[in-house]
Amino acid sequence: MVISGSILGGQISYTFQVDNYPGFPEGISGPELSERFRLQAIKFGAELIDKEASAVDFSSKPMKIYVKDDVFETKTVIVATGMVQRRLGLISEEKLLGRGVFVCATCDAILYEDKPVAVVGGGDSALQEAIDLSKYANEVNLIHRRPNFTANKHLVEKVSENPKIKILLNNILEEILGEKRVEAVFVKDLKTGERTRIHVDGVLIAIGWIPNTKIFEKKLQLDNEGYIISNGTKTGVEGVFVAGDVTDRIYRQVVTSCGSGVMAALDAIRYLESFKTG
Questions:
Q1: 258 catalytic residue (yes or no)
Q2: pTM for the predicted model, two decimal places
Q3: Set 104, 245, 248, 267: catalytic member
Q4: Which residue among 48, 67, 140, 261 is buried most deeply as judged by most CB within 10 Å?
Q5: Is residue 174 located within the same domain as residue 243?
Q6: Cα separation of 62 and 38, whole Å?
Q7: Same domain as 77, residue 157
Q8: pLDDT of 214-224, one tens digit each?
Q9: Within 13 Å and on the Cβ side, how many CA atoms surround 121?
């Protein structure tokens, strides 16, 4: 049984434009690619249950997955619940998500060629995203609420030396402006209280990610940020495998998640076959 973002329930995060997935030279939207994955899984006999899993029990065999009033028993489980990006909590952020508000420079940077953008965040990911965006955008406004970045020294130096990146420390993104697409942002200086309107065509939110692992607390070994700790696809529980962003702190791409999904499926098949030969 595979526990994915859909069976886990809650918020599902899509990349709205995917330009680096093999076989789609013109790019494809995240929701469309997901729908193609779904149809292909159905074609090969997968039964999809679009309900929220409320609890799991990996302590006995068969293992149990609780979905509302139903209990599913299974010999093996693949956890592929992914993660969601942390949000600023602005109404305009939700309204313009996929319409200029985005979360992945690798996926969407080309859409902002010769355009001004803003990046919100101050860690390694935010600075790397700003650097990646600067290869396409004509201006990158890097907004961070603290007086110093939390990223490593090498990235801070690269950002500081990049003529396309404008650093705005001690600032918060207060509002994203635009009706149908992002048109500008209001930035507030936390020292002076001054509000500045900056024209941008895109806003990348890079303030961290939240793995969808709440129901696996005390069931699987998690690190201090909630990612599942694994050895390849194997967790510390026999018969439970893991794939994708829920265990990947580094690559976090659709294609790498698909690859790890294949590995988890093969490992699960071998595990099931061991019952026949054991």
A1: no
A2: 0.71
A3: 104
A4: 140
A5: no
A6: 26
A7: no
A8: 999 999 999 99
A9: 24
